[in-house]
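Hey, can you fold this one?
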Amino acid sequence: MSEDRSTGASPTAGAPSGASPAAEVPSGASARGPERRTMAVGCLLVFMAQMATTIYLPSLPAVQHDLGVSRSFAALSVSLFVIGAAAPVVLWGRAADRYGRRASLLAALALFVVSSALLAVNTSAEALLVLRCAQGIGAGGAAIIARIFVRDLGGGDALARRLSVLSIAFVTALGGGQFLGGLIGRYAHWQSGFVVLAVVGAVGAIGAATLPLDPGRGRAEQTNMIRIYLRILTVPAFLLPTVAGGLGFATIVLLQEVAPFVFQDHFGLGVDAYGNTGLLFGLAYFAGAVMVNRRVAAAGSGRLMRTGALIMTGAGLLLVVLWLLPSVPLTAALVVFTALYCAVTFGQAALFPSSMAVAVSAVKDHGAYAVALCGFLAQSIAGVVATFAVLLHANLVWAGVAAALSALAYLLVRRDAPARRTAATPTEA
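Sure. Predicted structure:
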């Protein structure tokens, strides 16, 4: 069945197989209320997952000081969160398909809320890493299931538009979370941020309990999870944009991990001043998300995906040039660095939702598995990069890595990927 480019998939095209179309995608005016509530809860969950990183970033130097650990150890608490968010994503997709979106989502949120509450009272450096990993598992599950039930609403360019709305929630957390983290770092203890996260997670659970979500296949219908995922990986139109989106996400995670030390140690900004820069990055991401939302019907997801990757590549190369010019006055270097950081952020805001829409729309069946695998690959790439980023202390080195990641993302999507094969249907699996 074909998809209309301006409105997305037909009521059955984006639906997971095995469920009734009428139950998943209502039509007409009756669909607007549930769809708006679904999008609202999805935005809250994406906001929560991203803020779990950004509200914490301004306090990394304080974490280093208070717990008596090295800079690499403090940064590792960011890396382990990203790895925790990535590692079980394919299992979350399986759970959402078998047990239903709501039950799986509530389980993820329960883990997130409990780990956040424990982080708020923890005083052990080793426990910080363990709890941040557990928090990441819960956040990653909540965020990917949010994208799964948004995918249930339809595919195509309409999906890119909906994902761009989720990106606006992401950007709110990107800028607002860092700003709030800066205020917390100045006026309260850095662990107060975890209290905020626990409350947001609890609100998300209440919202999820009210949504008309897909109930899942249940135990009656058995599917071979590994075979489904392997078949999806054979679809070039899925794999190439997924990896490109993951490389873009990895670039952002790399910048987030090094930025607190660059702004505070290299440029001499205070924790609150660094927190305020988050508003600029948030505005840049917001602009990119709005561009996707407004332009996707005319330009198409593929073109916006390539545009975002190209912008990130150009900004990354200019970052390398900046650190090759040590004679640049410190204030001027700060302005240029901030502007290029914003450019990378803008490019990622265009790349990520567009690449995910292109990827999951190439898989005609098993929407939950496609979204979960897309999220898993993106998070895994970011997690690997974040782990190595703890060793990248030299500005020129990490800038070179960021430029290389962005350039590789562009090379992967500079042309439309051929969609020769599609994922397995239920009978094939």
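Confidence is low (pLDDT under 50) at residues 1-30, 419-429. Let me know if you want another pass with a different chain boundary.
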